[in-house]
TrEMBL record:
Pfam families: adh_short_C2 (PF13561). It comes from the Bacteria. InterPro entries: KR_dom (IPR057326), NAD(P)-bd_dom_sf (IPR036291), Sc_DH/Rdtase_CS (IPR020904), SDR_fam (IPR002347). Residues 13-203 form the Ketoreductase domain. This is SDR family oxidoreductase. Belongs to the short-chain dehydrogenases/reductases (SDR) family. It comes from Actinomycetospora straminea.
Length: 261
């Protein structure tokens, strides 16, 4: 069971977390749930969502919903159903993402479109559906980007492009909707200990290279990213808008250069 750190910060709030079946999404759901929010986690696999709900801190309210964020109608129905059932929406966390390796020279068109559909279209669909309700609540959107969207890396052309789009979409929404009382921010993790990165983390040579590049010498834990997401959604961040916060162990400070220490 996840560690409870209940403070009641989000008591009465309603939060949607896409990609909530594992990794950063699961940790984020647990964090909001421990602090009193009603959390609706969306994902493609009911079994994964059920496990996240079962493992939540005691007293959490976690509701599961199967939805493919690349499907506009499914995402719109998700948001409308949540508001109909719970009466409001305070925070949308756009976390759902997929990643596959490949350069522009060797990636195929179907893979490119699949990554864009989930990683970019899904953010657009969910945000569009949520905005009318967030205007009413004075809520916020937190997008889960990536350091790969702040600067390119090798062999991940589609993922780099998708997360770069999320970066600038965050900027556009922060500018367009601040006057309506809606804040939009993003977190940008580096390598994180999730199912998505399991292949990378199982390769000793690759992990040795990452440890040299990341000054703190290790991947992030999902809960460490969730902590920053919760801050951005909280009252403590009430004047934070259009921010891009790397959760990268100092990788950005080193400009991606190897740690020579």
């Amino acid at each position: 069971m996840a560690e409870s750190r209940s403070t009641g910060t989000f008591t009465g709030a309603v939060v949607i977390v896409t990609g909530g079946g594992s990794g950063i999404g699961a940790a984020t759901a647990h964090r909001f749930g421990a602090e009193g929010a009603t959390v609706v986690i969306a994902g493609r696999t009911q079994e994964k969502l059920d496990k996240v709900a079962a493992d939540a801190p005691a007293g959490s309210t976690i509701v599961t919903r199967v939805a493919d964020t690349s499907d506009e109608q499914a995402v719109t129905s998700l948001v409308e159903d949540v508001v109909a059932e719970h009466g409001r929406l305070d925070t949308l966390v756009n976390n759902a993402a997929v990643a596959e390796p490949g350069t522009v020279a060797d990636i195929d068109g179907d893979t490119w479109r699949r990554i864009m559909a989930t990683d970019v279209d899904g953010v657009f669909y969910a945000s569009k559906a949520a905005l009318p309700h967030l205007r009413t609540s004075g809520g916020s959107i937190v997008n889960v980007g990536s350091v790969s969207g702040l600067g390119g890396d090798w062999g991940m052309a589609a993922y780099n492009a998708a997360k770069g789009a999320v970066t600038n979409l965050t900027n556009a929404m922060a500018l367009d909707h601040a006057g309506e009382g809606v804040r939009v921010n993003a977190v940008h993790p580096s390598l994180t200990a999730t199912d998505m990165s399991a292949g990378i983390r199982s390769d000793d040579d690759t992990m040795a290279a990452f440890r040299r590049r990341i000054p703190m010498g290790r991947p992030a834990e999902p809960a460490e990213v969730a902590d920053v997401i919760a801050f951005l959604a909280s009252h403590d961040a009430r004047f934070v808008n259009g921010a891009h916060i790397p959760v990268d162990g100092g990788l950005g400070a080193s400009n991606g250069q190897p740690n020579m220490g």
